[in-house]
Amino acid sequence: MSSTLYTSIGELVTCDGPDSGTLAGVAGDGVLGIVRNAALVVEDGRIAWIGTAADAPDSDTRVDLEGRAVLPGFVDSHSHLVFDGDRAAEFAARMTGERYDGGGIGVSVDATRAASDERLRELVGRRVAEMRAQGTTTVEIKSGYGLTVEDEVRALRIAGEFTTETTFLGAHVVPPEARGDRAAYVELVTGPMLEACAPHAKWADVFCEPNSAHAFTEDESRAVLTAARDAGLELRVHGNQLGPGPGVRLAVELAAASVDHCTYLSDDDVDALVQASDTTAATLLPGVEFSTRSPYPDARRLIDAGVSVALATDCNPGTCYSDSMPFVIALAVREMGMTPSEAVWAATRGSARALRRDDIGRIVVGGPADLAVLDAPSHLHLAYRAGVPIARALVTPSGTSED
Ligand code: NIG
Ligand code: FE
């Protein structure tokens, strides 16, 4: 087994210090567990040693990082990468005042159904490569642009070639051909579609919005989620994106790992998330507010109340065609009142929690060497140098990180 020493790390953000378990009540950089002038040893794709450069042990190979910062690889816990087709005109229309209502999803469904397996595989591969080139080492990928039994299974199979974090989203929208009979579509999703998809998925998700012709009501969403739970899947929810609604309440009631968007929350929603903070994370997706010209969620209110907050891209062709976690971090800092250290924590350890993972999102001896390196001396530069490609996944020998 060969070992590699990474040394002259200006700032090692471990997200594994004594105060790294939660954002609640931790001021300053405490959550990040920073070691300065650091070094670490990787053996066989795993972290074998962490400390200061002055104390570093001998190893077979030595890589001098020349003062760069090293962080846990970003965990993008919400994406819809399996799609074909272009909706740039819809984005342009929103920039001149059009509202997002989910109606454009049908355009992506048509294009995705028409694409070959090879084409979809190539598109997902390209998007995952873009993510790694920006520091992401774990990504969750949803189905949801197939919406037939065959097309949903196909999307999950392809997603499974790139990640173990696969999510069945047959309840993304009611597809055009099923509009006349919503109940029949919910029966399909909770019956034959779920049965065919469950072996290929770890998670199930639903787009729960009470006042949308396209998404699912509270009762429909509860039916989808309970059937999925009975089939052995863990739960996530799209909720409170387009307006106030039952998504958060339902996610907490069913002990979902995360409720995502959380743009419009009542005081009761926040209280419910505080009570459920060990179980259910609030995943904020500010790239969506950027791309839909909507108000940003109030991250400060959530963090100050004690909610477990995560950040992700939601990369999809409609509400956010960006797969950049550094962009999300910059938006969280500039537009949502998060400090740079809160945003980095929420994009790593916080999003790992939203996937119920404690092996990733932090740098710990024995853990996988899923690392991001910055062409910069500190994590502050992620927001400070917004739009500049300073972050990338660190390629480690026999590791899982690649450019
Ligand atoms: O998370 N809101 C539902 N689903 C996606 C958007 C999908 C689309 O517009 O294609 C989201 O925002
Ligand atoms: Fe989404």
H-E order: EEEEEEHHHEEHEHEHEHEHEHHEHHHEHE
Shape: globular
Which stretches are poorly predicted, pLDDT < 50 over at least 5 residues? Answer: none
The DSSP helix count reads: 14
CATH topology type of the largest domain: TIM Barrel
Report how far apart the termini are: 23 Å
For the CA atoms, what is the radius of gyration? 21 Å
User: How many structural domains does the protein architecture include?
Assistant: 2
The main sheet comes to: 7 strands, mixed
Structural class: alpha/beta
> What ligands does this structure carry?
N-(iminomethyl)-L-glutamic acid, fe (iii) ion
Beta strand count: 16
Q: Kindly report the name of the CATH homologous superfamily of the largest domain.
A: Metal-dependent hydrolases
**Average residue-wise pLDDT:** 96
CATH level-1 class of the largest domain: Alpha Beta
Identify the CATH architecture of the largest domain.
Alpha-Beta Barrel
Strand fraction equals 15-25%
Percentage of residues in helical conformation: 25-40%
List key phrases describing it.
403 residues; alpha/beta; Urease, subunit C, domain 1; TIM Barrel; 2 domains; 7-stranded mixed sheet; 7-stranded parallel sheet; 14 helices; 16 strands; 20% strand; binds N-(iminomethyl)-L-glutamic acid; binds fe (iii) ion; Amidohydro-rel; imidazolonepropionase activity
Give the helices and strands, then pairings.
Elements: E1 3-13, E2 34-43, E3 46-52, E4 61-64, E5 69-72, E6 74-76, H1 88-95, H2 105-114, H3 117-132, E7 136-139, E8 141-142, H4 149-160, E9 166-171, H5 182-197, E10 203-208, H6 218-230, E11 234-239, H7 247-253, E12 258-261, H8 267-275, E13 281-284, H9 286-292, H10 299-305, E14 309-311, H11 325-335, H12 340-347, H13 349-354, E15 371-374, H14 381-384, E16 391-393
Bound molecules: N-(iminomethyl)-L-glutamic acid (NIG) and fe (iii) ion (FE).
Residues 78, 80, 238, 314, 316 line the site of fe (iii) ion.
Family: Belongs to the metallo-dependent hydrolases superfamily. HutI family.
GO biological process, one term: L-histidine catabolic process to glutamate and formamide
EC number: 3.5.2.7
